[in-house]
Each structure stands twice: as structure tokens, then as C-alpha cells.
Amino acid sequence: MPFIDKLKSGIPTLSFELFPPKNINGWATLYTTMAEISKLTPDYISVTYGAGGSTRSKTVDLVARIQDELGIETMAHLTCVGHSRDELRDILQTLAKAGIRNVLALRGDPPKGDSSFKPHPDGFAHASDLIGFIKGGFGLQIGCAFYPEKHMEAASIESDIAFLKLKQDQGAQFTISQLFFDNANFYRFRDKCHAAGITMPFVAGIMPVLNLNQLTRFKELSGCLIPESMVAFLSDGKPEDVARRGVDFATEQCQDLLKNGIAGIHLYSLNQSPSSARITENLRGLGHFPVTVEAPKPSKSAKP
Ligand code: FAD
To answer: Pairing with 19, which of 45, 145, 257, 276 sits 20 to 30 Å away (CA)?
Structure first.
């Protein structure tokens, strides 16, 4: 069943996020990860879009390849950064021609060195504008991003929610969260969204922590809050145990979200499979994401 239909019918989806690597070693790791992830039979895999369109063709090629070779539905991320409407139209037409059915429509972050986002003179300033553009054609299902602890540039949670509502009104059909570690913040945000008339399914973006150094980076990049209790849990033991504890933490976080009606779990796998695989196995062991179909068989080799 296409994952959008699952989301609509209230069946939780399981998905993974990958990014196009920058070098040959990264591609080798990615192909191994893709093979491992395909065994986990996710509902879909999404592929990020590099800042400033730096991975433009790589994103399009990779989503098409995953779909063709692994038989797994995909979603391409797309940002407004540096693109005119004509360029965006071209990318969207290429995606549609390649048989991709889903796009995550984003504004994107300012390119390195720029302090604020500057739209292309013939482009879009906000994700909601891009969503409206996509809605007008292409036959693609549209997702968007949300920030349970507020987008870093947003004046308030309330203004962020008003713009999320605008994304829905413009045509977004589901929304995926920025990483977060405190479910209470997520539930508070979701309740406010429901009160504001946002009815699209909420998918939780979950980041398995691999080491403690990552936490400062996550905070700087996304503005997410780091609960002291999580740091204490992750630090309680040998440094080499942090990744295992990260899996335990993420498993509990997902289990709680699934009990509380989350529409889907989206694992930020960072092109690595071990933690994501263990979280998936743990959740399956707890009765979530039953495997109802045979694992898809690649039609071609998934090697570079
Ligand atoms: P918007 O919805 O446009 O929001 C940006 C800011 O503007 C917010 O503060 C919002 O409150 C405000 N705003 C929104 N609409 C309006 C309006 N009409 N008027 C005034 N203010 C407004 N980045 C990448 O470069 N590549 C990726 O592949 C990528 N994937 C992501 C996947 C997920 C699940 C998430 C959560 C983020 C991802 N990002 C990615 C990061 C994202 O591009 C940044 O967080 C970016 O800063 C905001 O994007 P947005 O789509 O939420 O923007």
C-alpha cells in the first residue's frame, strides 16, 4: 500500500532518511546501508537535498535508484535554496517522469556563510509557496517539515503553527518533525496544532544518538532541547556503550509515540544501518510495524 494511504488510514508507517554522500567511500557505505535497510521492509525511504542544490542530480538519481533497484517507495526532499521557479519545475518534472510519487517540500537553510535566507529573485521565500507550486501539477504527494520545539527563526511557537497551517492549506498532506528527544514537547505542540485546525498526519523524526559529541551539534544545528535525563542515561556506562544506549532511548521514545497515536516513525539513519536496524527490530519485537509482505527483491544489482 502506498505510504500516503497508510498515513491516511491511521496505520503507522516506518521510514528511513538517507543523504547523497560527497565521496566514493561514502557511496560504498551507503550501498551497504541500502541493502541492510531494504531487509527491514520500510514503507518508504527519503533522500535529502543538499544545501544550495549541491546534490540536486544526486538526490533525483538516488531516489529513482532506490525505487527501481530495491522496489521501495521513495520521497525526494526539495528546497527553494538558489532555485528559480523554472529550475524547480524542471526538477519536479524529472522526479515525476522517474516515477517518484512523493516530495518533501522545504524552504532550506541559508547557504554556508549567509546569515539569513535570501530567496532566488524568481523563486520562493517559504516552503508554503513551494507547496502551492507543486500542488498545481506534477501529480506528486507533498510532505512538509515541522518543529516540535519551534523553528530556530520563528518568533514564537504560535507563529510557527500558523505557518504550518498555511503549509496544510497550500496542499501539504503530511508533516515530518525535526529531531527531538522530549516527547512531552512533541505532544504539547501537536495538541496546539490540532486546536489550530491542523489535521494532516504527524510523523516523528527520530535520531538515534551514536555518541555524546553529537548532542552539541544537534542543538546548534536544529535548536532541539537536550533533556538532562537523556544525557545522564547515555553517559551512564562505558563510552563504547553510548550507541547501544542510544538505541534503547530511541526505542522507548518510539514506543511511547506509537502508544500515543503517532502517524509514523521516520528514522534519521545518517547513512548507517546498525542503530536503525536495532530500533526497528526492538519495535517489531514489541508488536509494531508487522511485516505483512515479503521483503522486496531488488530487480537489479544495488552495487555502485
Ligand atoms: P518554512 O516553512 O518556510 O519556515 C521557515 C521559517 O519561516 C520558520 O521560522 C517559519 O515559522 C517561517 N515562515 C514560514 N512561512 C512563513 C511565511 N509565509 N511568512 C513569514 N514567515 C514564515 N534542509 C535541506 O537543506 N535539505 C533537506 O533535505 C532537508 N530536509 C529536512 C527534513 C525534515 C524532516 C526537516 C524537519 C528539516 C529538513 N531540512 C532540510 C531543514 C529545513 O530546510 C530548515 O529547517 C529550514 O530552515 C526551514 O525549512 P521549512 O521548510 O520548515 O521552511
So the answer is: 257
